[in-house]
Design goal:
Layout (H helix, E strand, L loop, with lengths): L7 E4 L3 H11 L3 E9 L1 H7 L5 E8 L5 E7 L19 E5 L3 H9 L10 E2 L5 E7 L5 E7 L2
Parallel strand pairs: 1-4, 5-8
Antiparallel strand pairs: 2-3, 3-4, 6-7, 7-8
């Protein structure tokens, strides 16, 4: 049935700042940006008069995130869930050089409530961070 995860969608309030964060700070590549509206998107989302801009971003390995900026149906200004909230809670990113990544992200306003931790089996170093618009990132470095 399921062959792959195509992308994860992330609704943002400020698309330009989100693109800066995801592309310039985290290193994703913008592969497609599109304004969307009309009967098809209205029917798909079960809403009326939808107007949005989508931006598909790709990581080095080809995995994708889609940023969605709703012009017609604004929501709250940031995500306010926790790591234990019901539903989607975070995006896990594989990194290399955890200390440098943490230092770089702190310079761009990412909040790290705790330092990176070694997993019980000693195979990874992992940390949670609160990023742009409240999105939770899990950063994982695989130890070789």
């Amino acid at each position: 049935m399921i062959r792959a995860i195509r992308h994860a969608g992330l609704v943002v309030t400020d698309l330009n700042r989100a693109l800066h964060f995801w592309c310039d700070v985290l290193g994703f590549k913008l592969i497609k940006r599109m304004d969307e509206s009309g009967p098809q998107i209205d029917a798909m989302l079960n809403l009326r008069d939808v107007r949005l801009t989508t931006a598909k971003l790709a990581a080095v390995d080809g995995s994708q995130i889609e940023l969605l900026k709703f012009h017609s149906h604004p929501d709250k200004s940031s995500w306010s869930g926790t790591p234990y909230s019901t539903g989607f809670t975070h995006i896990a990113l594989t990194v290399r050089g955890m200390d440098e990544v943490v230092k770089h992200l702190k310079q761009h306003g990412v909040i790290f409530p705790n330092p990176p931790q070694h997993s019980v089996d000693g195979k990874v170093v992992v940390t949670y961070a609160q990023a742009f618009e409240g999105v939770l990132l899990e950063l994982v470095e695989v130890l070789e």
